[in-house]
Specification:
Elements: E1 2-11, E2 14-24, E3 29-33, H1 40-47, E4 55-60, E5 63-66, H2 72-81, E6 82-85, H3 97-107, H4 113-126, H5 142-155, E7 160-164, H6 172-187, E8 192-195, H7 199-205, E9 208-213, E10 216-221, H8 223-228, H9 233-242
Parallel strand pairs: 3-8, 3-9, 6-7, 7-8
Antiparallel strand pairs: 1-2, 1-4, 4-5, 9-10
The structure holds adenosine-5'-diphosphate and magnesium ion.
Keywords: ATP-binding, Cell inner membrane, Cell membrane, Membrane, Nucleotide-binding, Transport
Subcellular location: Cell inner membrane
Protein name: Amino acid ABC transporter ATP-binding protein
């Protein structure tokens, strides 16, 4: 359902991603871990064309795009099929929770305003924030802001949601409510690609854990095997440091 082939990305003369091949099934929950500066964010950003990849090919559903030959229309369509949840929430400060969720539906997906607002209300209900519809981000806790960030991604009906360290900016007290919402999505079999340092989430929720180092996939497997019996020395080293 989403497939990356030979994804490479360089900044200046330096390759940050060195040939990533990845196949994700519909409904699969994939967690990506790895040292800092190793290309995890760049990988997610390439999928969404927040960065222009240097080489490779992507398939999402029935759409296959060569990164080098992508047209404006391809890029828009890929963005429509994927949604991004940012570490720092990236909400519009001057828009209410409701408008933050409705905005993309109106601007990117060209929904009429009323339909977008109805959808946004339905989503606010699903994320338990109905009563905060008219609140601006500054009046929300970090956890509530990130739930709106996730709600915005949910509203789009995207085929895959990309999470880039969604709990890393949160005060510890808000982490659980955000993870709980992500677990709810996982139970609904929303296809998810999640970069996180939350190893308990990886253990409990992921179908597959992928370890990236130096812009390559070093090792991957179901969490039960991955954590109990890592094969590569780099994986073992990393796990020793963070567990
Ligand atoms: P991670 O998310 O795994 O911590 P990133 O994908 O953010 O790593 O970054 C990987 C490498 O690419 C880092 O060395 C970073 O400095 C570099 N990098 C990321 N974005 C840019 C950019 N826009 N311009 C130049 N270098 C970048
Ligand atoms: Mg990152």
């Amino acid at each position: 359902m989403i497939k990356l082939k030979g994804l490479r990305k360089k900044f200046k003369d330096q390759y940050v991603l060195n040939g990533i091949d990845l196949d994700i099934e519909q409904g699969e929950i994939v967690v990506i871990i790895g040292p800092s500066g190793t290309g995890k964010s760049t990988l997610l950003r390439c999928v969404n064309f927040l960065e222009q990849p240097t080489e490779g090919e992507i398939t999402v559903g029935d759409l296959t795009v060569d990164f080098c030959k992508a047209s404006k229309k391809d890029i828009l369509e890929l963005r429509r099929r994927t949604a991004f949840v940012f570490q720092n929430y990236a909400l519009f400060a001057n828009k209410s929770a409701l408008d933050n969720i409705a905005e993309r539906l109106i601007v990117v997906d060209r929904w009429p305003k009323q339909k977008a607002h109805d959808k946004a209300r339905e989503i606010l209900k699903r994320i338990g924030m109905e009563e905060k519809a008219e609140s601006y981000p500054a009046a929300l806790s970090g956890g509530q802001q990130q739930r709106v960030g996730i709600g915005r991604a949910m509203a789009t009906g995207a085929e895959v949601i990309l999470f880039d360290e969604p709990t890393s900016s949160l005060d510890p007290e808000w982490v659980d409510e955000v993870l709980a919402l992500m677990k709810q999505l996982a139970r609904e079999r929303q296809t998810m690609l999640v970069v996180t340092h939350e190893m308990s989430f990886a253990r409990d929720v992921a179908d597959r854990v992928i370890f990236i180092d130096g812009g390559r996939i070093v090792e991957q497997g179901p969490p039960s095997e991955f954590f109990s019996n890592p094969q590569d020395p780099r994986t073992r080293d990393f796990l020793k440091k963070i567990l």
